[in-house]
């Protein structure tokens, strides 16, 4: 029943479920092929093709579109329950689509919550409220999306493992307090980003990961603000291109009149 429901959910930023197997002990979901793998692979240290800042903003907008559709475009609403960078897949053209609805739940009303006694989601992405309440709802997905945004911005894994494990929120908080945006942004970008857009994305991400779920924004608002960030960055690039062109034209050699 759950797989049948997911097969009728269609959006350009959701990986299409094309079939499933439910035969005795053999259970599987079959999704469309995604040529560029998952977002986690592209953010890993071993990846040589570094995602540009604009690509990261576009991926965040794409993923927000998909999640916003699940929350507000589906009737009943669908909560993903396991959103993470490895569940955001990329097409040949680097369009992002949300995948893996194996844990998803459709709620009968928009404000309903699902109470579960077994963990849902992945450590590091899991809503901290779940541990105290056992409740999974749309704001739980918003928390997970905020963690994904932080990974996109910082290029850091959600949990850094060393002598002690450090969660990405613990890592970024002191840098935010110091206003050190250049230490926050993935150093592999080599400063190629608009500072105002970068700060705005960080602010959006931190609003998503607030410890109290009711204070987190709805995905409609998150999507709207991320679009503003992308527009700001695109506008900055266009201005820079125009200025460079004017500068280049000023050095063009004009033939002497005869």
UniProtKB/TrEMBL annotation:
Cross-referenced Pfam families: PK_Tyr_Ser-Thr
Signal sequence range: none
Keywords from the UniProt entry: ATP-binding, Kinase, Membrane, Nucleotide-binding, Phosphoprotein, Receptor, Serine/threonine-protein kinase, Transferase, Transmembrane, Transmembrane helix
Membrane topology of this protein: Single-pass membrane protein
Listed SUPFAM superfamilies: Protein kinase-like (PK-like)
Domain Protein kinase residues, every copy: 1-258
Single GO cellular component term: membrane
Locations listed in the record: Membrane
Molecular-function GO term, any one: protein serine/threonine kinase activity
Name of the protein described by the UniProt record: Protein kinase domain-containing protein
Gene source species: Rubroshorea leprosula
């Amino acid at each position: 029943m759950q797989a049948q429901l997911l097969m009728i959910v269609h959006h350009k930023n959701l990986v299409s479920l094309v079939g499933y197997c439910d035969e005795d002990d053999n259970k599987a979901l079959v999704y469309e092929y995604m040529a560029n793998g998952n977002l986690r692979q592209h953010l890993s240290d071993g990846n040589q093709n570094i995602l540009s800042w604009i690509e990261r903003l576009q991926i965040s907008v794409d993923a927000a579109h998909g999640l916003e559709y699940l929350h507000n475009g589906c009737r009943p609403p669908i909560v993903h329950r396991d959103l993470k960078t490895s569940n955001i897949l990329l097409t040949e053209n680097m369009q992002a689509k949300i995948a893996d609805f194996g844990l998803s739940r459709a709620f009968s009303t928009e404000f309903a919550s699902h109470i579960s006694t077994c963990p849902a989601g992945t450590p590091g992405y899991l809503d901290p409220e779940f541990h105290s309440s056992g409740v999974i709802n749309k704001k739980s997905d918003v928390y997970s999306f905020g963690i994904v945004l932080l990974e996109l911005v910082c290029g850091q894994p959600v949990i850094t493992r060393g002598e002690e494990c450090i969660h990405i929120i613990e890592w970024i908080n002191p840098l935010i307090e110091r206003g050190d945006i250049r230490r926050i942004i993935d150093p592999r970008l080599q400063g190629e980003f608009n500072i105002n857009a970068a700060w705005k994305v960080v602010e959006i991400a931190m609003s998503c990961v607030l410890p109290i779920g009711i204070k987190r924004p709805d995905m409609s608002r998150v999507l709207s603000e991320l679009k503003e960030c992308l527009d700001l960055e695109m506008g900055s690039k266009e201005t820079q291109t125009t200025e460079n062109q004017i500068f280049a034209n000023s050095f063009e050699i004009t033939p002497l009149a005869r």
